[in-house]
Amino acid sequence: MGQMQKAGTALLLLATLAGLAWWTMDGGPIRTVALLLLGLFVVRVVLYSARSRYDDKDKKDE
User: Fold this and answer.
1) Number of neighbouring beta carbons within 10 Å of residue 38
2) Which long-range contacts (C-beta less than 8 Å, at least 24 apart) are formed by 51-55?
3) How many Å separate Cα 17 from the centre of its chain?
4) pTM above 0.85, yes or no
5) Residue 20 to residue 17: CA distance in whole angstroms
6) pLDDT digits (tens, 9 = 90+) for 1-39
7) What is the 3-state secondary structure (H, E, C) of 1-62?
């Protein structure tokens, strides 16, 4: 499984968890915290996949 495929799978899973949190939790600070945590994981996955893409690009240039 390629790096981009892993990132896509992780983002799909996080989107599913965010949807479940939105529909199953009552509105309030708990849901907000859950969505913020999931959002931080999304940022982490996106930044890691972007870094890995550039690292792979640098290795091919050498």
Assistant:
1) 19
2) 52/3, 53/3, 53/4
3) 11
4) no
5) 5
6) 788 899 999 999 999 999 999 999 999 999 999 999 999
7) CCHHHHHHHHHHHHHHHHHHHHHHCCCCHHHHHHHHHHHHHHHHHHHHHHHHHHHHHHHHHC
